[in-house]
Amino acid sequence: MRIRLLGTGTPKPSLKRMCSGHLVEIGNDVILLDHGFGAHHRLLEAGIPATRVSHMFFTHLHFDHFGDYARLVLTRWDQGGGLLPELKVYGPAPLLELSDRLFGANGVYDPDLVARTSHGASLCLYEARGGTLPRLRPKPAITELKSGDMVRERDWTLETAMVSHFQPYLMSYGFRLETSEGSFVYSGDSGPSDAMLRLAKDCDVLLHMCHYVAGTKYNADFGGSCMSHMDLAELAQQANVGTLVLTHMTDQFDGPAVRERVISDMTKVYTGNLMFGEDLMVVPIKMPALEKPL
Predict the structure, then answer these.
(1) Secondary element (H or E) of residue 69
(2) Is 169 exposed, middle or buried (0-12, 13-18, 19+ CB in 10 A)?
(3) Does the predicted TM-score (pTM) go above 0.90?
(4) Which residue from 251, 253, 250, 272 is spatially nearest to 261, judged by alpha carbons?
(5) What separation in angstroms does the CA of 44 have from each of 77, 106, 206, 264, 285?
(6) Which residue ranges make up each domain of the chain?
(7) Could you give the residue ranges of the DSSP H alpha helices within 26-68?
(8) N or C: which end of the chain has fewer CB within 10 A?
(9) Strands 205-209 and 243-247
(10) 282, 262, 249: which is closest to 8 by C-alpha?
(11) What is the DSSP track for 124-183?
(12) End-to-end alpha-carbon separation of the chain, Å?
């Protein structure tokens, strides 16, 4: 299992941190967990074309986790030459409705799709890429998830649990991936949550939203839907997490000496391995032994 972070930022535009999106490779499966604005660019920088992606999971449907979905589907479809199985897409309702509004008849991309499945210039390119006419529209294989659902593939399973974010307006899930190599848990966006504590129990790697420095929340709703660094340290310690990776960080964390203060605070509570996530970072499922300096 190879874990790479594609976007570790927030809805606020940034050249340093793209919106949320992460990449997991397990055997022949290439799995994306969220795909917000800019995550697709990072996917290309990681050397992974859209045509290699087999599974797409959304924790929730905020634009910073969903914004590059259309780019992924359309690029994969256009470059695949009709030779690829449909993309497997999972997430909370109303994922089916939103996908239809994007790719269905009279959807956002309907004029484009009509042109690309009708005009001779597009059809000859399709055939040159290996396709056989008629050219069909993209139709991702969508499964709407509920809390507690399990997705099982040959080399891995994924468990879903509802976490604390923007309910009742949006359903928000955390995911736990289990493989023969270890366990990887991704919070999506969540504030303090008993469900996340259960989901993350004894996992090898927890990738979790760390949205703000403790003591700077705006109100109770903010604190209940987004995680502070100290809430996260307590969660990781209680769950006995092997490695904790911070993501979905605001530029508050980039202030002078803030990161050092955060690490100092968190390591007084959490005794495992602590990593600040960065775009394109590779996260080991098992931490290597400390080498001697050369």
Answers:
(1) helix 69-80
(2) exposed
(3) yes
(4) 253
(5) 16, 30, 24, 35, 23
(6) 2-283
(7) 39-45, 63-66
(8) C
(9) parallel
(10) 249
(11) HHHHHTT--SSPPPP--EEEE--TT-EEE-SS-EEEEEE-SSSTTTS--EEEEEEETTEE
(12) 29
Each residue's pLDDT tens digit, 138-158: 999 999 999 999 999 999 999
Contacts of residue 219, defined as CB under 8 A and 6 or more positions apart, other chains included, come to none
72 phi, psi to nearest 5 deg:
-60, -50
What Rg value do the Cα atoms of the chain yield, rounded?
20
What are the φ and ψ backbone dihedral angles of 7, each rounded to 5 degrees?
-140, 120
CA of residue 157 relative to chain centroid, distance: 16
φ, ψ dihedrals at 51, nearest 5°: -65, -15
E strand intervals along the chain: 2-7, 21-26, 29-35, 55-57, 88-91, 141-144, 150-152, 157-162, 173-179, 182-186, 205-209, 243-247, 273-276, 282-283
Distances from the Cα of 142 to the Cα of 11, 45, 91, 225, 277, angstroms: 25, 27, 8, 27, 29
**Per-residue burial over 96-116, b = 16 or more CB atoms within 10 Å of its CB, e = otherwise:** eebbeebbbeebebeeebeeb
What's the one-letter identity of residue 259?
R
On average, the pLDDT of the chain sits at 97
Convert the pLDDT of each residue in 29-57 to its tens digit.
Answer: 999 999 999 999 999 999 999 999 999 99
Architecture of the domain made up of 2-283 = 4-Layer Sandwich (3.60)
Handedness of CA 107, 88, 4, 166 (dihedral sign): positive
The per-residue pLDDT for range 169-189, each reduced to its tens digit, is 999 999 999 999 999 999 999
The dihedrals phi and psi of 181, each to the nearest 5 degrees, come to -90, -20
Buried b (16+ CB within 10 A) or exposed e, 250-259: beebeeeeee
d(CA 179, CA 9): 27
